[in-house]
Amino acid sequence: MKPIVGILPLFDEKKDSYWMRPGYMKGIMNAGGIPVMLPFIENIEDIKQLSENFDGFLFTGGPDIDPTYYHEEKKENCGDLTPYRDTLESQLFKEVYALNKPILGICRGHQLLNVLCGGTLYQDLPSEYQSTITHRMKPPYDNKQHTVTLIEDTPLKSLLNKTILPVNSCHHQAIKELGNDLQPMAISEDGLIESCYAPHKKFVWGVQWHPELMCTEKESQKIFEEFIRKCRE
């Protein structure tokens, strides 16, 4: 039996519609899993049922997280917020984390798991963090923008068996203070945490870059494969 993975959807306000980048689906399918796009719901009992009936969960990219989740007021350069998405994802993450189900967070998902573990974010890198790196690249998004250094004795370093990894990059927020029980796995050239994990959990990984936009590449596919391998256990 293939593991079934719940994927958090994106939302288009102008079209009033759910949507999904194909790369998220392809990454899961190519790794041997079955992806299912989840609905936006707020009922806690329904969220608990979702958490129990999937083998793993992929928290996707998207709009900024409401800064009240990390006890800050929204600043001028913070982007658009999606309250219903924050509500679903925060409740679902809490349930899934407690059940020790595998979690993969990409971009916003990486930031979300940090926030929900008690960490904070830079609300806007260009105005809050001095760097020579442009973290919000222009298309095509499968190009490489900068490199990250993989930290020794971490699962990501062991999986990819390399020290320097070129990545794409499309974000204006990033981890500021790392959340409780999380450890860094990759650091950007300018010192930002670009990947983290929860060592005491079966699989809770976050990556700031976008492997779903490079899922035909070996390193990106290995991340999806490791996620699905844990979903099978």
Count every beta strand, where a strand is a DSSP E run of 2 or more residues: 13
Query: What is the N-to-C order of secondary-structure elements (H for helix, E for strand)?
Result: EEEHEHEHEHEHEHEEEEEH
User: How many helix segments?
Assistant: 7
Gap from first CA to last CA: 11 Å
Mean of residue pLDDT values: 95
Helix content: 25-40%
Relative strand content: 15-25%
- The SS-based structural class is alpha/beta
Rg from Cα: 16 Å
Low-pLDDT windows of residues? none
> Main β-sheet, in a few words?
9 strands, mixed
Strand order of the largest sheet: 4-1-5-6-13-12-11-8-9
Give me the secondary-structure topology.
Blueprint: E1 4-7, E2 10-12, E3 17-19, H1 22-30, E4 34-37, H2 44-52, E5 56-59, H3 83-99, E6 103-106, H4 108-116, E7 121-122, H5 125-128, E8 146-150, H6 155-160, E9 164-167, E10 174-175, E11 183-188, E12 193-197, E13 204-207, H7 218-232
Parallel strand pairs: 1-4, 1-5, 5-6, 6-13
Antiparallel strand pairs: 2-3, 7-10, 8-9, 8-11, 11-12, 12-13
Helix pairs in contact: 2-3
